[in-house]
Hints:
Layout (H helix, E strand, L loop, with lengths): L1 H10 L8 H17 L3 H8 L1 H4 L2 H14 E2 L2 E2 L1 H13 L5 H8 L1 H7 L2 H10 L15 H36 L1 H5 L3 H22 L17 H4 L3 H13 L12 H21 L8 H4 L18 H15 L5 H8 L2
Antiparallel strand pairs: 1-2
Helix pairs in contact: 3-10, 5-10, 6-7, 8-12, 9-10, 10-12
Amino acid sequence: PKGKAWVMKYTGDATGSLSAEGIGASVAHWFHLSTLGANISPASKNLLQTWITTTNVVGVRGMYRGLKGVPGGGGALAKMEKYVKAIAVDRQSTKTAFRLAFPEYVADMGDASNIVESLLAGDIAKEGIAKRLISGGTWEKVKTAMLMPFSTSEGFNRVVSYYAGRNQHLYQNAQKLAGATSAVRDAIYKEAGQVGQTLTMTTQFTGGPLGIPKALINYWAPWRQFMHFPMRFGGFLHNSLRMGADPSKLDWGTIGRTLAGSTAAYVGARNILGMDLSSGLMMGALPIPAYERSAFYPWPLVPPALGVIGAGAKALLTGETQELAGTAAMLVP
């Protein structure tokens, strides 16, 4: 019986087993931690997602209203300040602080709000199908601290997107709200919440099994890891062609604004700060051929885990080690 139990455990599909699925889940878990853990680069790039998606739907003024607020609707910045104060000063739990600071988000997003609550608390592993492979309070605290920069940036993106959509709708209906009955006011606020929810789901590409692009569903876990965003972003731009006033006609507005905004951000950061933001802007986010020096160029979409293997093989075969620095950044937190 013990031998049978051992065989079933280590050859089944469960995480931690010796099956292809179990090994793949373990590899994906550690690669996730090594790439995002204690690494400010992916966190800073992740903050650009709102710039290349949400901003190009509601506009710069819409984003401003989402951050600062409108009559009848608080802004995300003040609410985040309230959230931090509730934790740091009032010693509230992250769950309680989140519900106090973002009551509209909790009410409108339902169960999805629990994910953002976890993200802001620093636990990126609570989204999707990530598993805890090592038990123990100390290790979990270390992982939480390592993933804090990226998870916080992801939570920030979703909260800001929600309030940008919600406040934009309230702003556009300000005159109706001024003299509205309670029933009409409730209806407008409900619509505003739905707009915020739709904008978040449309532009933030939330994870989990239902968020995996159809083309990746049957791929081995390491081969589909970090492939979610470029494919969803390409789909977002493609679908935006039908987001105009007349869906039967092509509307290039969102793509044009995305290109213009990315160009402005790239030129500004390059000339003023001496920084290259291209990998976090429109062209860097799309599933298109990578750098010419990469191992699989000009293949348009290569799983990062496979790219690491290719970079190592290229270095061994050619003796060129310039690209190994970037590879090391994904393997070492």
